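Recap from last week: sequence in, structure out.
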Amino acid sequence: MADDNSYESMLCVKPEVHVYRIPPRASNRGYRAADWKLDEPAWSGRMKITAKGKLAYIKLEDKNTGELFAQAPVEQYPGCVVESVTDSSRYFVIRIEDGNGRHAFIGLGFADRGDSFDFNVALQDHFKWVKQEGELAKQEASESTAPKLDLRFKEGQTIKISIGQNIKKKEAGGAKSRPMAMGPLPPPPAGKVGGVIPPTVEQPTVSTVQTTAASLLDFGSPGPAAPPSADVWGDFTSAGSNSSKDAVQSGWVQFS
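Predicted structure tokens:
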């Protein structure tokens, strides 16, 4: 910020503006452009907005020779130096100074609404930057006055770092065997499910199969017929008695 006053920057240039004589303000409601003689401007020329430090300057110059007609230093915007009229966005009232402490109010008008918009935005951006610079300066001042944290070693102060012990501990921890993961338990034996032991089925041997097949294929020598039994139900009785005995002996049927 020390070199802000060493140069002047250009913010906005408009090749044609008009200056009007304005009547005294009748009330506190503001100025109205309809009260001016808009078809008879008092002066026409070029307008420049420059900035030097925190101040902005509205300069009215001759567009051919560059001779300064009037100048208005602006310390803040919006403010009393630049005021908008109440009935149009293309006209403003500015306070000009002659450098000897005297000032006067004149009307400033733009032929195009876009030019008046650029005029407005140039002043707003400049003073927005001034506000940000002021806040940054306050922040830097508060940080400079605050006590700083001193992290330097005091005289005779040492620090000890044990690097080898940490490596040995990691190696010792890595050498430990990991516990083996337990797999799923095997299923229980099939014979114990439900508490009932299924009967064992005996597979016929080869000799038995061959004997049975031979007896079935021997058509030439029929065997002696079995004598008729007097008891018709004898075979069924014996078969039933044998099957019940086999079931009891095998143990797969339980009676209560």
